Amino acid sequence: MALHLAYLPNEILDSIFTYFQPREADITQARLIRCNNALRRRFEPRLYSQEESCDRIMRVACERGLIETIKLAVDTFGASPSLVTIWNGPEPFKVLTLHLAAKKMQPGAFALLLKLGARVDIEIDKKFIQSQMPCIVKALQVEHARMLHQFFISGTAAQVPNIPIANNCLVQAIINRALPETVRLLLDHGANPSHVQAGGMRLSALSAAAMTGAKETFKLLLEMGADVNAKKCKLRASSLFEVPIIGAAHAMAEFQTTEMLQLCLEYGASIDTNITLAHESSGSPILISPLTAYLDAVIDWRAVHKLSPFDAVSLILNQVHQMAENPTSFLNMDLNTDCFQIGKALESLLGKWGVGHFVIDEFFAVVWLLAENAGAVDLRSILKTMLHEPIATYYNDGLSRWLVILDVLLKNRNTAERSTVLYNLILDCANSGFTYEDESAEVLIDHLIQAGADINLREHGDESSRTVLHAVCDIIDEETKDLEQSSRWHFVELYQPDIDKRGGLLQTIVRKGGDPKLQSNGKDALDRLRRTSHEFTETRIYVSHLTGYLNCADRLMDDLSDFVEVDGLFVVA
């Protein structure tokens, strides 16, 4: 129903017409129109003369874009083009008409109100403008360019010079793919080309352009003084997307094109930009680079990509190598220091997707490429993750592909480094509470030994240091002491599978060449277990599924005594 009563509701007209004969319809319609006009002339003055009724009409007209109603209310009956009183609730309150039209996305009503002289600097109280203007700005942010043009060209924005309206609208306008002309309008009216949106992703204007693929807007912002390297950015977690090249790398996965990344590099962006983040679980700092930002944005490795992840990563790595060879590089660091986070990207990728994705050709190709180019990789961290992956995860050729990657990561390491990797791997098996997967651990241990790792490596290189066999025995000994302390206060139960797990690891070490006769500080592996045996004898810890009280350490020593030395190796007797 039109609120200016220019015509009766369609439902009433339809009801009236059903009672007339077809030949009477034309005559009756003319009479009804005359009647309606007469009623309108009599009712409208009464309707609009009441303040509350007029406000309700103006509110609905602004929200629904009823142009003729707004004209009638303002031009004929003197309604305010700027303010509407909302009568809902216990106390009425004022609202800007521009806010109502903008909030409901009514550009026609918005333009008419501006033409009729609507203002935003109404003096009601000091807090009124501060509370209303953000609402208008928020509405303008999500609307197309038309209302923004109207708002600034009419001079309305200039009525509140203390509120940075152009700045507040800039980033969201770019996100909504505003035309370059609209962006220029905002810049001409005081928007900062390096402005960063408060809250949310904290996007900078350049990052917003990069993430939406707005090339012309990106160039315009640079021409107006935006910093492509965001040098004033504090480079921390909250400012991740303040850096344009990070946004461009993220968008490369979404839009399947390298255009924005290439544009960033063309204008001097640094491919070695790193942003410090705190790891969610460990709290240790990690760095986000364009490479890690891109890989994190890939959500489906099985999908058909217009731009394959392998090609995208190759592009980034080519830029990395070019910068490493350039003596004027931003950080001026050697590639082997992994300042470009290639190793971190590899660790993050494997940690996120796991070994099950090795069967996907694209994923395997990217991992191989990263492994070939990584200057430094925390191999211990990667292997620790793989220890808890069941062999069943490596279905089809996943296991063989993982071992290929492991060989690539080991190829630049000498025997001592490979032996250290093996030492840490076995130590992590024990330190994890023996919760590792037996088959996975054995495969990794075998492969490292075949690659030349020495299972009898001394911890610190000297003869008095521990081997990994000593270290595992010491861990079992510490567990025994903890159990002994606990048993003084409450009942302690040690399950047979736990004993078997510990004995199995000791057997594996000896079977793979670990020498139980080697001594550390005058004690060999059996001496350490005998000390553990004494603790258990004194404590009398119950072991389920066995008859009576058994001695865990004696059981483990029995495991070791099953081996005999043959040609320098220990095999099952």
UniProtKB/TrEMBL annotation:
It holds the Pfam family Ank_2. The keyword Zinc does not apply. PROSITE patterns: ANK_REP_REGION (PS50297), ANK_REPEAT (PS50088). InterPro entries: Ankyrin_rpt, Ankyrin_rpt-contain_sf, Multifunctional_regulatory. This is Uncharacterized protein. Keywords: ANK repeat, Repeat. It comes from the Eukaryota. The keyword Ribonucleoprotein does not apply. ANK repeats lie at residues 201-233.
